[in-house]
Amino acid sequence: MEMKERIYMISAIVEHKPGVLYSVSNMFRRRGFNIESISVGESEQSELARMTITMKGDEATVEQVVKQLKKLISVVKVSILDSENTVARELALIKVSTPDARVRSDVINYTEIFKGHIVDVAHESLIIEITGDTDKINAFIELMKPFGVREIARTGIAALQRGMRSVKME
Amino acid sequence: MPRMSGAKALIESLKKEKVEFIFGIPGGAILPVYDALYDSDMKHILMRHEQCAAHAADGYARASGKVGVCMSTSGPGATNLVTGIANAYMDSSPIVAITGQVPRPFIGKDAFQETDIVGVTTPITKCNFQVRSAAEIPKIVKAAFYIAYTGRPGPVLIDLPKDTQTEEDEMNFDEKIEFRGYRPTYDPHPLQVEKAVQLLIQAERPIIVAGGGVKASNACSDLVALAETLLAPVATTLMGKGAIPEDHPLSVGMLGMHGTAAANHLVQDADVLLAVGMRFSDRSTGNIKAFCPDGKIIHIDIDSSEIGKNIKPHVPIVADAKRTIQSIHNRLIQKFDRKERSTWLNRMQTLKNMHEEMIKSVGDGIKPPALMVEIRKMLPNDAIVTTEVGQNQMWAALYLKAYKPRTFISSGGLGTMGFGFPAALGAKVACPEVPVVDIAGDGSFLMTEQDLASSIAWKIPVIVVILNNSMLGMVAQWQRLFYNRRYSAVDLKRIPDFVKLAESYGAQGSRVQSIEEFRAAFKEAINSDVATVIDVPISPEENVLPMVPPGNALKDLILS
Ligand SMILES: Cc1ncc(C[n+]2csc(CCOP(=O)(O)OP(=O)(O)O)c2C)c(N)n1
Description:
The structure holds two protein chains of two kinds. Chain A is of the alpha+beta class. Chain A folds into two domains: 6-81, ACT domain (Alpha-Beta Plaits), CATH 3.30.70; 87-158, ACT-like. Chain A, domain 2 (Alpha-Beta Plaits, 2-Layer Sandwich). Chain A is built from four helices and nine strands, in the order βαββαββαββαββ. The longest helix of chain A has 13 residues, at 59-71. The termini of chain A are far apart. Chain B is α/β, with parallel strands linked by helices. Chain B has 22 helices and 20 strands. In chain B, α22 links the parallel β19 and β20. In chain B, α3 (50-64) crosses α17 (420-430) and α10 (220-230) packs parallel to α13 (321-335). Chain A binds chain B through residues 14-15, 19, 22-23, 26-27, 30, 48, 60, 63-64, 67-68, 70-77, 169, and chain B through 118-119, 122-123, 126-127, 130, 147, 179-182, 303-305, 307-309, 312. Thiamine diphosphate binds next to α16, α18 and α20 of chain B. The site of thiamine diphosphate has 19 residues of chain B, from α16, α18 and α20.
């Protein structure tokens, strides 16, 4: 029976110390799991970090990923986030060419519609900061392409479950 | 808190873990530790290659059930340990490897003999540590031993920058260790136990498959008791060999690519398969899509990532093997009143008889299956047998019966040629009272024979029986069966005179041409106080049989 592939979000609480990101990413590589994105940062407890991993796969693969993550000694807690009850956001910085005033005003207008911010202004370019789910960011980037996108930096998804459900250490 | 150097703290910590032996080789980056060792009464066994140090620690661990310790310098010393660490990882053997490292200020500068051994060993250790300050050493050593030994056992590496070995600090040996991300589940879930019991009660054709986890959790006698109640045959994986005495009426030997006809057919025909502490490796299952096609599978393992990795069980149980088997058995006795299972067990007996037939030798010269039987007859029940890798290993697994747990030691997961001899040295150090025999191939033995020197130097008298076909025999067998006899790079052409080789180290050597000569030489070897190498010429045309060709289901095996 072939199982359907889809995008999964996994939230992992890990020890905040050197080598942890390496052991996690190395495990993904060696077991042939494909990560779409991974983001790491301090969590609500300073000695623990939260990793948000998005990956494409079928149910059995994702189950294995969770088990293999749990097996790593430096990984404290792991959950699959269900997309209905999860807030997932990504931040992107996009540098766009603005050779003349007309382009510049178009870009600024679009940025406002997408609730982005202009965070750097130079003679021939702007840097736009935009947050949202992956679809929104992709849509915005598509919109900017005709103007000339020079550089993009994306953080990957950070996600938390809504309400009182949580993936945290008690 | 006592003040001392990191090196001294390491030795003190090892003493607290009751370490008696360290297998190792010194070098620049680990000198302070060796200096501290000079004043200690801990026994260091100087090996001739770090790979052998790691395998010896592994053999020691498998024979004794305790953690084995190996040690090396940085760079090449550490990388030489790698094969041994990978081997211990695949076979879930608890060892702690200690490596020197360049001083902290030099790390990352490509200093002399700097290798990122923590990076290298991340995928082949259960966990690894690099010491950042001397004061961490007691805690890290405690953690390393705890992690290596508990849950699913495995290797742990501690990397010690040289300046953390010389740094002095107040040492706290009583600090508690706590792991937020490591809490093995020991107790089985009662509902899962109940489901397993239900399946077993209804089973008409049950079989138990025991893996290395049964030995690791000391569950062997519990497993045998359950099998007896259930009237179920017991097959083992290579790693599980010895979990049931192989002269037990319910023992059917090893399953898999070179499994017995009994184990392979019964596994295929079973309606309920109870798998304990095994991981459904490709060598055990044959074509996994055709594995136990009509059976319901109960899978017990302490490592949850093994459940569902290769096969989806009907009843998964993540827990310690011993506790689970005991729970299942306790529940089962209350409801189970079956007194016989004649059709299934008669079939078992017929298949087992086929196996005995295969031992009867035909033709000239010494036949390996008969030789294995002979060796078994001459050894006491608690003697330890290790193997190299290849045909020698499979002949030993098939025809040299193991009667007790921890008496059969072989490189299963990694299949490391050169493992058997240093592992035998480690096993002999752990169990000096019993004979220890390495069943070897000529190719494998040549990979680690230099440690005959350490066996003499440290008075570790093991016996090496070389099944000498002047060939990389197992590879030749595959070329014979699957590559139309196109023998490519398997003829060793020029092998040393193993008798002279042994003698040059101060060991004993002999060459035998018949079973009678073998008996005499082996008897002498058992009583010898130096290592003995017995060279047994065999035909290069021998095949190890039975064999399930790769890709086949277990029932499609070649018998002759
Ligand atoms: C370190 C290592 N290198 C290569 C192999 C591949 N290999 C598997 S069996 C084998 C032949 C072993 O020959 P020998 O030790 O003489 O044993 P025999 O099969 O003849 O009993 C080889 C080369 C291996 N398992 N390990």
